[in-house]
Design brief:
The complex is a heterodimer. By secondary structure, chain A is mainly alpha-helical. Chain A is 69% helix and 2% strand. Chain A has 13 helices and two strands; from the N terminus they run ααββααααααααααα. In chain A, α4 packs across α8 (194-219), α6 (162-172) packs parallel to α11 and α8 crosses α10 (235-264). The two termini of chain A are 31 Å apart. Chain B has a single domain (45-265), classed as MetI-like fold (Orthogonal Bundle). Chain B contains 14 helices and two strands. Chain B has helices at 2-10, 12-36, 45-48, 54-87, 93-105, 108-119, 130-137, 144-168, 171-180, 185-196, 198-214, 217-221, 227-233, 239-270; strands at residues 37-38, 41-42. Chain B has a two-stranded antiparallel sheet. In chain B, α2 packs across α14 (239-270) and α5 packs across α8 (144-168). The chains are: A mainly alpha, B mainly alpha. At the A-B interface, α2, α4, α5, α6 and α8 of A face α1, α2, α4, α5 and α6 of B.
């Protein structure tokens, strides 16, 4: 069914408002006008270039050292620990697949699939719902509405973890306001379930998707819509043959980001449902705190490695897609 | 999919936005009501008395100090590196970008699993000077280890923000002008480059601060007690206070991002968009 109301005068939608992504910065103020003391020795351009070459490495060395120590060391330890077992009697460690096998069987396998399931469901829902909201905002020409949605999305996308869990417990928990108001417990609804987790996760994922997908929706030019319309395409045909194909890379990219966010989330679920839902992040935290068995650290490392592998596989999907998307929307 | 989307679009503004507003406003309204609703009526005790409790102020102050230290640490690492890469080491650009995005692939819980293991080497190092380093890292009053982990976690925001900022200024001309006027390298960086990147620096800093203030996973696994960990600890004894604290943290995030959009708004009016086909509002 064609929608006759939406096509708008060219240029108005795309040109309004600052976009939400940290876009181009520009000289906000002139640099300090006071030139530095002119006592520096005058050198020729050649000397300066040599000097530049000599001095350029010290600026990047701290960065690489920092990453090696604070990221490389823990990550390397994780991989190493995942593949070794420590003999408690002798204190020697040897290569073994025991931890990796352990982390992929029994309750831990359930936790891993539970996390993947939750992430897939929330990522799909957040992608669809976030895009619908963003498109509703883009197609509405009201700048004030857009301003409100963008700033609210920015805040809510950052409202995750423990505070979010408390907001949902206070709303839909056993003694929550809405639960008591509508006697939800009689309907069998429980916040401390898979559905409850989905509801809570969407609360920060949908805003994140809105912020992520808005620039892509802005990139759909009004001219394309007009060209399609003047060739006799209906609105549905426009979306099917032009809009969605151009957006697909951005949408999939957004879905990958949503998956990664949901997959890595720990605090919301830990505070809301504790260990009652099998999730790998909670199992890792429990193993690290020694809640399960003492000496499970290497098992926790193996589970962490599983998470990294899954995250890598999912992220790898995004890289070729982004290039295609950049060609059209860049 | 296309058909579904277009038929939903017909009424999108009429249905989607009110439903979204309902979904996003109800939990906030319900939480505020939860925190003020008493058996004998409405009471703001959770906000007036509760928010002054010592546990809250110390934990919030710890979070703020950690956040500021993270920002300083992150900026000191990233600004010189990105400037040097943009100017002299273009071949490293991809490498630096990939390294900065690595924390997105390693979830915080996985990172902290590795960190706990590294910290557990402390006993083995008891006889070496490194032992003192480990002690300093784990200092209860100001756990430097959290600052380091948070700095790693904030690299993606910092990179995106600073990279966008650097692309928008003509860095080479600025630096050559400053250098030919006799400024030293540090002077150039501090007095010429950084003021031109002010908006990008602020943007990255605000996002890092918001991340640190809400962070729970790393701090709780390493058993420190910043704001969100405190909030969880009191949830059983003082449920209303923990919900009030959650609302406070929402308010803080909102304030921080408002600050960011104010800064970014002032910036975008002056900047010219690079995107083709778009005109700048002037």
């Amino acid at each position: 069914m064609p929608d006759k109301t939406a096509p708008s005068p060219a240029g108005s939608g795309a040109a309004t408002l600052a976009d939400s992504a940290p876009a181009a910065g520009a000289p906000a103020s002139a640099p300090d006008p006071d030139p530095a003391p002119a006592s520096a020795p005058v050198r020729g351009p050649g000397a300066r270039r040599r000097g530049a070459r000599r001095h350029r490495w010290p600026a990047v060395v701290p960065f690489f050292v920092f990453l090696a120590v604070c990221f490389g060391l823990p990550a390397g330890t994780m991989v190493y620990g995942a593949f070794t077992v420590v003999d408690t009697a002798t204190g020697t460690s040897e290569f073994s697949m025991e931890n990796v096998n352990g982390s992929l069987s029994g309750a831990y396998a359930t936790g891993l699939t539970g996390s993947v399931e939750l992430s897939v469901v929330t990522a799909l829902l957040a992608t669809v719902l976030g895009t619908l909201i963003a498109q509703a905002v883009v197609s509405s020409q009201r700048a004030s509405l857009r301003g409100i949605v963008v700033s609210a999305s920015g805040v809510l996308a950052n409202f995750s973890g423990a505070p979010l869990a408390f907001a949902f417990i206070a709303t839909l928990g056993t003694t929550g306001t809405v639960t008591q108001l509508f006697h939800l417990h009689e309907t069998g609804f429980s916040l401390y379930s898979f559905t409850g987790l989905v509801l809570a996760y969407l609360y920060f994922m949908i805003p994140l998707m809105v912020v992520t997908v808005l620039p892509a929706l802005d990139g759909l030019r009004v001219q394309w819509q007009e060209a399609a319309a003047s060739c006799g395409a209906t609105r549905a045909q426009y979306w099917r043959h032009v809009g969605i194909p151009v957006l697909i890379p951005s949408l999939l990219g957004g879905a990958v980001l949503m998956f990664g966010t949901a997959f890595a989330s720990h605090a919301t679920a830990a505070v809301m449902v504790g260990s009652s839902q099998p999730l790998i992040t909670i199992q890792i935290a429990n193993a690290l705190n020694g809640n399960v068995l003492v000496g499970q650290e290497n098992l926790a490392l193996a589970m962490s490695l599983n998470m990294v592998v899954i995250a890598l596989l999912v992220m790898a999907v995004q890289i070729p897609l982004q290039r295609r998307s950049a060609r059209w929307l860049g | 999919m296309a058909r579904m989307k277009s038929s939903m679009k017909l009424t999108s503004r009429g249905i989607v936005l009110p439903l979204a507003a309902l979904y996003f406003l109800v939990p906030i309204g319900a939480s505020i009501w939860f925190s003020i609703n008493e058996v004998d009526g409405v009471s703001f005790d959770a906000y007036t008395d509760g928010l002054g409790t010592e546990g809250l102020t110390t934990s919030l102050m710890l979070s703020v100090r950690l956040g500021l230290a993270t920002i300083i640490c992150g900026l000191l690492l990233m600004v010189p590196t990105l400037v040097a890469v943009a100017l002299y080491l273009p071949k490293l650009r991809r490498v630096v970008e990939i390294l900065c995005m690595m924390p997105l692939v390693v979830p915080p819980i996985a990172l902290v699993a590795g960190v706990t293991t590294v910290l557990s080497w402390e006993q083995d190092l008891a006889d070496t000077p490194l032992y003192m380093t480990f002690q300093a890292l784990r200092d209860e009053n100001f756990p430097l280890v959290l600052v380091l982990v948070y700095t790693v976690m904030s690299l993606p925001f910092l990179y995106r923000s600073l990279d966008a900022g650097l692309r928008a200024v003509d860095l080479r001309t600025l630096v050559e002008a400053a250098r030919s006027l006799g400024a030293s390298r540090l002077q150039t960086l501090w007095q010429v480059v950084v003021p031109n990147l002010r908006a990008a620096v602020m943007g990255g800093a605000v996002l890092s601060l918001a991340m640190v203030l809400g962070e729970y996973t790393v701090a709780s696994v390493l058993s420190y007690r910043p704001f969100s960990v405190w909030m969880v600890e009191i949830k059983d004894s003082e449920a209303q206070l923990s919900v009030a604290a959650a609302m406070l943290s929402l308010l803080i995030t909102w304030g921080l991002l408002l600050l960011l959009t104010t800064l970014a708004g002032g910036r975008s009016r002056k900047s010219s968009r690079r995107e083709n086909g778009k005109k700048t509002v002037s």
